[in-house]
Amino acid sequence: MEELKVQPIKEGTVIDHIASGTALKVLSILGLSKSPTATVSLLMNVPSKKYGKKDIVKIEARELKPKEVDKIALIAPNATINIIRNYKVKDKYKVKLSEIIIGIVRCSNPSCISNLREPVESKFSVISRKPLKLRCYYCERELTDIIENIVI
Amino acid sequence: MSSLKGKDVISIKDFSKSDIKEILRVAKRMLPIASGERKDDSLEGKILATLFFEPSTRTRLSFECAMKRLGGSVIGFTEPTSASIAKGETLADTIKVAEAYSDIIVLRHPNEGSARLASEFSSKPIINAGDGAGQHPTQTLLDLFTIKEEFGKIENKNVILLGDLKYGRTVHSLAYALAVFRVNLTFVAPQQLQMPTEIISGLKDEFGIDAYQTISLEEVIPQADVLYVTRIQKERFPDPAEYAKVAGTYKIDLEALKKVKEDLIIMHPLPRVDEIAPEVDCTKHAVYFKQASYGVPVRMAVLSLVL
After folding, report:
1. Cα dihedral: B249, B251, B257, B258 (round 10)
2. Residue-wise pLDDT tens digits, A43-73
3. pLDDT 10s digits, A62-105
4. Predicted ipTM?
5. Which residue in A62, B22, B143, B212 is deepest, having the highest Cβ count within 10 Å?
6. Between B17-34 and B58-69, two packed helices, what is the crossing angle to 10 degrees?
7. Phi, psi of B148 (to 5 degrees)
8. Contact B92 A119 (CB under 8 A)
9. B9-20 burial, b for 16+ CB within 10 Å, e for fewer?
10. Which residues on A lie below 8 Å from B113 (Cβ)?
11. Roughly how many angstroms between the first and final C-alpha of chain A, as a whole number?
């Protein structure tokens, strides 16, 4: 019998179909790479029927909030979220990138009004999905480095 | 009723070609009222709030003049130090207060996107009078109006945008607006001040326009109908040494105009420093002061259509 590389989790979330090499970024944007308490398993470059190779992240005892799922959609648009309860998949869905991205990334333009002390959240429209391009609703600049500007 | 009634004027991209044409048509009608030859009190009882968080002379005066020529009145401030923002108030709060005191708000602010933010907090129309290196749509409209007045049409003209195309907000909006009118665009700038690639690709993707880019004005000036000159803006350079490398790269003088078309017009959003020699002022090519004067009829048109 083939030995399991990573044990199944009892409760929590499995993020599957992450593009190969992107899992560490997913951990980073979820704030898990520096968490002293989170139990996280990471599989990188495992075989995938659909994509050839993929990464998988398993997070114990934690279900993702909608905003966290939106963040994942920005950097891993093909990812699937599996909600695990008592070792069983209770819910399964693909991440979906909205037309408008609110409060998830900050504008890379330091002079943009959305970066100042105003009572608004950042807001971007998706102007291209492949490659992913976002435009700031306020200053109209194209976001130059999406991953660097994700609000953690 | 105009389709612009109650609309914010934030970015030239918010306007369709027919919106722009309507504004230019009304601006033409406003010319005798702007010069004081005819009276018009159509905006009597209306109040314009001018919130200028950054110094500006032409834009503020032309808005005030435009409102008064139409019988309206003006309130506002011109010095950010005297405003509540100096005490730490957010722009959002300043706008909510100004909204209660006025019928329309003109905003000049150093931060990009501020007019868009203001529009979220005001039920009254917001007019963007320049937000940092962002948008200045009424400048673009008066630039278009100038070309229309000089040639009778904008379409298919050969237009050169010259100078600081990287940081200059006027040329970004203008390039887009000119593309709407299918002009032939040429960008002339030092290598480090060329038009941002996102604007070049936007012109191509949205309008199918391939702007020609060069550093040599001499090469392209003989074909030009419009030479739009901009100042290389010292204040936009993070490093003074970088500014020193490009300052004075292009100078429009009589020598530079030897091989131009008879009816070439030279435009400039002003203020100029030394990029156009004073000797050019008395040539038939110089229209930049006339262009500045068109700020009044164009802003009258915007105010009357929006209010």
Report:
1. -70
2. 999 998 888 999 999 999 999 999 899 999 9
3. 999 998 999 999 999 999 999 999 999 999 999 999 999 999 99
4. 0.87
5. B143
6. 70
7. -60, -45
8. yes
9. bbbbeebeeebb
10. 107, 112-114, 136-140
11. 41
